[in-house]
Amino acid sequence: MKKKGLTTIFLGVMFMALTIALGGCTGDKTGDENSSQITIGIPQDLEESLDPHKAVAAGTKEILFNIFEGLVKPDSDGNLNPAVASDVNISDDGKVYTFTLRENVKFHDGSIVTAEDVKYSIDRCADADNGSLLVPAFSNIESVTILDEKTVEVKLVEGDTDFLAYFTTAIIPKSNANPDTNPIGTGPYKYVSRSPQENFIVEKFNDYWGEKAHIENVVFKICANADSIVMELQGEGIDMFCRLTSAQVDQLGDNYEIYEGTMNLVQAMYLNNAVAPFDNELVREALCYAVDPQEIMDFTAEGKGTELGSSMFPAFGKYYMPELNDVYTVDYDKAKDLLKQAGYENGFEFTVTVPSNYQPHIDTAQVIVEQLKNINVTAKIELVEWNTWVEDVYTGRQFEATVIGVDASNLTAGALLDRFESTADKNFINYNNAAYDTALNNARTSVDDAEKTKYYKECLTILNDTAANVYIQDLAEFVAINKKYAGYEFYPLYVQDISKLYIVEE
Question: Which of 28, 155, 212, 501 is the most buried (most CB within 10 A)?
């Protein structure tokens, strides 16, 4: 499978072909090009570190998308387009990826991207000397070799025809001694400043290699709670906010255009499989039979959203299995019988930990609490600050259950499924299933697309069969944008691409 020049590599991962068009990135230029500003509300502060290789929270990664780029970059249609690289050759066995670097791509500090920078960025993410790999999938990298000043070769231990998607990993300058506090990338926007719990500011990068951003200055303003979000929009303190609830949308006036899509998240009540009673599969199954995703969607988003039966959302096309949505139809009697078999005939109590800054997850948890009363299970909601959730739940695994949405870091099925491998650092639910681990490894190592798809579907089926979590939905997404602006596009990933926005000419 060797491709050169202006050809296209067909990957077939998404609802449409996941491709890399090996040529220049072009697009219609629309809107006002004069000095301009937009203020965008976000529900949480970015992580303390601004190093793109260390980012964990989806809310951090979606903003850093504007600052950093990899050798390739996803677009809103699910394509992998050339970025720092202009060309790639992939060996027939999927073991060797050879990249030709684009001419004169500049970092935000004005320096030119070199092969050394590319090798440094990849090696850094594949280095396990300081603990876990920054990009776990890079454990499959055998070597990174500079062939000449414009060519870098990456050899894999095992062939992987999906591995191109992992090269969206940010290329950063080798010379940057402080990437945690001084983020330097190649994207359409460059970092200006941050004020913790207040804002994060970027500005247009005029030496960007591709199509320039339209809006000069962007302020990401932290809105800590639902009430403040609506107030800021009503008072035009912010111009745009993503992931509003339908109730919040109803409170807005005519000054805002509402865009409707889905979040590309796997929302579930994630269960700590290592903690009683959720270490008992029968208990987990009982909860699955007691929770009604459609009722949740009706309550939280006027029926909008897409039901999920496992850890895959519809944008991943051939991997998404809608038939799994019907495995656990609401059956309170069956749920009670399962609890009886598990030794919980009289039910039990547990705590659902939910980040306080995400209203859709709070609303979902509230409905679940009421639904579980039908099987004599008492759930108590504990609201915590986002940083506390990350530290205690995601990192520390000190929780019983949580309602959250899990995103895909790139356009591969593995990006959603790797986290449930028994030994995975990000396996926050402590899932441990030998059959799952085997199927996942088979999917990773297969170079036959049909075979790879089969094994990934086997992983999804195992998660469903063992009731690893109570799967709910890919949430409806409502985006409010002041009518002064246009150009917003939904992505099959959890990102905010601000470079597409422009001021509407009056």
Answer: 501
Residue tagged 């959302």 (tokens): 313
Q: Which residues fall within 8 angstroms of residue 339, CB to CB, at 6 or more apart?
A: 282, 283, 286, 345, 347, 375, 376, 377
Take residue 444 and report the two structure tokens written for it: 């990773």
| Residue range 336-367, pLDDT digits in tens | 999 999 999 999 999 999 999 888 899 999 99
CATH number of 266-475: 3.10.105.10
Tell me 395's DSSP state: I
Residue with tokens 């063992």: 466
Give pLDDT tens digits for 197-223. 999 999 999 999 999 999 999 999 998
320 and 485 Cβ atoms separated by less than 8 Å:
no
Are 231 and 95 in contact, with CB atoms under 8 Å apart? no
User: Which residues, other chains included, contact 332 with Cβ-Cβ below 8 Å and sequence gap of 6+?
Assistant: 289, 290, 374, 375
Q: In the numeric block, which tokens belong to residue 68?
A: 């950093």
Give the other-Cβ count within 10 Å of 7's Cβ.
14
Q: Has domain 8-186+484-503 been given CATH number 2.40.110.10?
A: no
Q: Where in 205-335 does DSSP place strands (E)?
A: 217-222, 240-244, 256-262, 266-271, 305-307
Which ranges in the chain are annotated with CATH 3.10.105.10? Answer: 266-475
Strand blocks (E) in 151-188 = 151-156
Non-local (6+) Cβ contacts of 502 within 8 A are: 30, 31, 32, 214, 215, 485, 486, 487
Beta bridge partners of 382: 353
**pTM of the entire structure?**
0.79
Q: At CA 280, angle to CA 275 and CA 282, rounded to 5?
A: 145
Rounded to an integer, what distance in angstroms lies between the CA atom of residue 199 and that of residue 40?
A: 10
The tokens of 384 are what? 């915590």
CA 498 to chain centre: 17
Confidence band of 130 (pLDDT split at 50, 70, 90): low
Name the amino acid, one letter, at 322: P
CB burial readout 198-226, b (16+ within 10 A) else e? ebbbbbbbeebbbeebbbeebbbbbbeeb
What confidence score (pLDDT) does residue 183 get?
A: 97
H-helix segments, 6-89 = 58-64
- Residue among 287, 202, 250 at smallest CA distance from 468: 287
Of residues 460, 403, 404, 463, the one with CA closest to residue 432: 463
Query: CA quadruple 121, 122, 124, 125: dihedral positive or negative?
Result: positive
| Partners of residue 469 on adjacent β-strands | 270
How far apart are the C-alpha atoms of 19 and 23, rounded to whole Å? 12
3-class DSSP string for 421-485: CCCCCCCCCCCCCHHHHHHHHHHHHCCCHHHHHHHHHHHHHHHHHCCCEEEEEEEEEEEEEECCE
259, 479 Cβ separation under 8 angstroms: yes
Q: Residue holding tokens 């876990």?
A: 132
Q: Nearest CA to 399 among 369, 371, 379, 418?
A: 379
Q: What are the residues facing 353 on neighbouring strands?
A: 382, 402
